[in-house]
Amino acid sequence: MMFLLQFSNLFGAVYRQGNLSFSKDGNAVISPVGNRISVFDLKNNTSETLPVSTTKNITCVGLSPDGNLAIVVDEDGAALLVSLITRAVLHHFHFHKPVNSIRFSPDGRKFVVTKENVALMYYAPGKQREFNAFVLDKSYYGPYDETTCIDWTDDSKCFAVGSKDMSTWVFGAERWVNLIYYSLGGHKDVIVGCFFEKDSLDLYTVSQDGTLCVWESDTELDELTLKRNKAKPPGEGEEDEVEEERTEGQEGEVIRGKAGTPKEKEKTKNVRFKHFFNKEGDFNNLTAAAFHKPTHILVTGFASGIFHLHELPEFNLIHSLSISDQRIASVALNCSGDWIAFGCSGMGQLLVWEWQSESYVFKQQGHFNNMASLAYSPDGQYIVTGGDDGKVSTSYLQSSPKSTHEDPVYRNFRTFTSPRPAQFSSLAVDVSGELVSAGAQDSFEIFLWSMQTGRLLEVLGGHEGPVSCLCFSPVQSILASASWDRTVRLWDMMDSWQVKETLHLTSDGLSVTYRPDGQELAVATLNGEISFWDPHTASQTASVAGRHDLQTGRKETDKITAKQSAKGKSFTSLCYSADGESILAGGQSKFVCIYNVKEQMLMKKFEISCNLSFDAMEEFLDRRKMTEFGSLALVDEGAGDGEGVNISLPGVRRGDMSSRHFKPEIRVSSLRFSPTGRSWAATTTEGLLVYSLDGSMVFDPYDLDLDVTPASIRKQLRLQEWTSAIILAFRLNEKALKQEVLETVPHEQIPVVCGSLPDIYVEKLLGFVSACLEKSGHLQFYMTWAQSLLMLHGQKLKNRSGAILPTLQALQKSIQRHFDNLSKLCDFNMYNIKYAVALSKQRGVKRAAEEEEREDDEDEEEEASEELSEASWEDAEMIL
């Protein structure tokens, strides 16, 4: 099953760089995270990482208007055409230069890419029955510096391009008679955004110094006239024009613009300057902008972390807020204009703000430094990560690791301190959760605290080097500690924490872990070996030499080859699988290795990243970057807009003139298997990576022969031979067919079928029931299956508790999730019932009060009428 594990999701990082985008319905944010793409569903509070990756960090993403396709471009200009429906890569392309921006036309027929000082217009793939790759239509020259932004008119007839030379160019997508190109000046800084008005050629441009220019055209879009080809036969309309066929890589039509207006005789199409705004103070250093055409809302983000909302063209300030102390790198608006997405690359923040209600829809910040450790919850529903930035965050795995959401940990309920200052280098908690231990790097001691009281219980001394790793036995009160003094010590709590055994290693100990049944111990040492020990006899049972499996790369600043540097590399993290048959190993490399413990052989290597933006990814350095004075990587060019991670001086928030950057080195800091056994996670330089089994893509028949077919299985169902049908279905092992057979069995026949199943199929059926219970709505039906299997085969399953532990934990996880959901639903219903009862009582009291008041009014009316009648009789008597 280890060979079927594949990448599932990426956590711990929500945004790195590049432009943010909303999905077509406006309910999901598409964010570039390193060399991958993450999709955050804001309605269901889940996230998903697409199973595609580029060779370097992604700089820009372009979405098609129908939301089916995405073009992803990395720092070198390598592009991927990705289907957002199938999550598959459809085409590879290379622009050969860094791409600044990419934008599809509103009709989806073309898209424009800007690189250097040129804008390239391509035919969009996927609009015809046959697949056409990236075919160049036209190349537009005009700006003298790098281009920065793109925007299209609503009818896809024209587009505008902003540039660092402080000019904006308007180009025609076709050869219009009255508009080929037009240059707009007036700004004094880099153009950050250019936006057309809805169904108009009127244009807004925003520059980095906070200047907004409004340009008004005296020509409407429908007044643009197409230039006719003289060779075209008469009588053909514009709709019948056939596009010229070109192949991929062939040069298209070249349009070269000059500053000013094209010198032609047409007297239409005159663009004149209308408004000019220049604001000082917080309006300086504008870094990102977005415009929502239907509502005329302009959103601008600044380097100070402040954003403003203005209504155009009057430039009325609607809203202003500081959301971060970091530079806002990207801004996006959803289709309705209610939600605004902000990306801050400095701290890895992603925020979605609903400006009308002034509330956060989504607010996440990943670890902006390396992750150091991770842990699964006992039921496998949560993953907690800790990083070098001092943050702890938790990720909730819902129905599958592909559907998650992340939250920070808010409350600290206990703090453990040592009697004297110590630098802790390792941490462990026992299975019961009552004891917390930490190893010191400077005093070589181990400290033990009580989780309940927070009191220090014991200080264990004896190591002669820093304590690198701690691990409690899952079945006994024994603590194993690995140290740089080349020993592993086993401390027995029952014997007043005395050293029970001392394991002597061949090199410094870096990591130690127990097998889930507590009958074996694995130790990773500095010489790249993994040794296996019997904790009862303190004898070594096996070892694996894994240094050659690491395959480390060469750093750009290394003076030696990768082969020589690999001699100093080793595994720093170990983790057993849930069944104890395999062990995960990771360290200073881009590979995670899975070894079979019994055979002492490598089963599979997982390449956790192919991102060349990290250091030590390649075995050989690029000789083109080598000079007679050394590698060009040794030259620090400053942070700027280049690749790498910024390093600021301590305490400096802004205005750091000595800012510089470095390329992080790829490595694996921690590994953990899920308690369910169906996934494992690794904290890496790239983030938290989760690899899991995808059961929908697995065909693994058991005891298959010619008689085991879907037809024979359904025949047994028609004959009501339920047990035989289940056995045949599990021999064929198709998920859909197994589910069909199980759900056909009558509810009252479930105990009979469970009692007649052979032992070999009981565990298989229990595992399948636990998987179905997690997603199916037939809660009582599958609960009956699970209860019958456990009641009738409980003793036999207990004897194999170690082997079926992952299945039982998966079953517990499914039941617990349904219990939580039903509890919330029942609490909500009880609240509604109580509210309805209280409301009815209140209305009853009110109705009674109204009736009583009405009766009082009637009594008063009767008394008044009686008095009136008596008075009238008295008056009549007096008259007589």
From TrEMBL:
<dbReference type="InterPro" id="IPR007148">
    <property type="entry name" value="SSU_processome_Utp12"/>
</dbReference>
<feature type="region of interest" description="Disordered">
    <location>
        <begin position="227"/>
        <end position="253"/>
    </location>
</feature>
<keyword id="KW-0677">Repeat</keyword>
<feature type="compositionally biased region" description="Acidic residues">
    <location>
        <begin position="236"/>
        <end position="246"/>
    </location>
</feature>
<dbReference type="GO" id="GO:0000028">
    <property type="term" value="P:ribosomal small subunit assembly"/>
</dbReference>
<feature type="compositionally biased region" description="Acidic residues">
    <location>
        <begin position="850"/>
        <end position="880"/>
    </location>
</feature>
<dbReference type="InterPro" id="IPR001680">
    <property type="entry name" value="WD40_rpt"/>
</dbReference>
<dbReference type="InterPro" id="IPR019775">
    <property type="entry name" value="WD40_repeat_CS"/>
</dbReference>
<dbReference type="InterPro" id="IPR015943">
    <property type="entry name" value="WD40/YVTN_repeat-like_dom_sf"/>
</dbReference>
<feature type="region of interest" description="Disordered">
    <location>
        <begin position="842"/>
        <end position="880"/>
    </location>
</feature>
<feature type="repeat" description="WD">
    <location>
        <begin position="460"/>
        <end position="501"/>
    </location>
</feature>
<dbReference type="GO" id="GO:0034388">
    <property type="term" value="C:Pwp2p-containing subcomplex of 90S preribosome"/>
</dbReference>
<feature type="domain" description="Small-subunit processome Utp12">
    <location>
        <begin position="733"/>
        <end position="836"/>
    </location>
</feature>
<feature type="repeat" description="WD">
    <location>
        <begin position="364"/>
        <end position="392"/>
    </location>
</feature>
<feature type="repeat" description="WD">
    <location>
        <begin position="184"/>
        <end position="216"/>
    </location>
</feature>
<dbReference type="Pfam" id="PF00400">
    <property type="entry name" value="WD40"/>
</dbReference>
<dbReference type="Pfam" id="PF04003">
    <property type="entry name" value="Utp12"/>
</dbReference>
<dbReference type="InterPro" id="IPR027145">
    <property type="entry name" value="PWP2"/>
</dbReference>
<keyword id="KW-0853">WD repeat</keyword>
<dbReference type="InterPro" id="IPR036322">
    <property type="entry name" value="WD40_repeat_dom_sf"/>
</dbReference>
<comment type="similarity">
    <text>Belongs to the WD repeat PWP2 family.</text>
</comment>
<protein>
    <submittedName>
        <fullName>Periodic tryptophan protein 2 homolog</fullName>
    </submittedName>
</protein>
<dbReference type="GO" id="GO:0032040">
    <property type="term" value="C:small-subunit processome"/>
</dbReference>
<dbReference type="GO" id="GO:0000462">
    <property type="term" value="P:maturation of SSU-rRNA from tricistronic rRNA transcript (SSU-rRNA, 5.8S rRNA, LSU-rRNA)"/>
</dbReference>
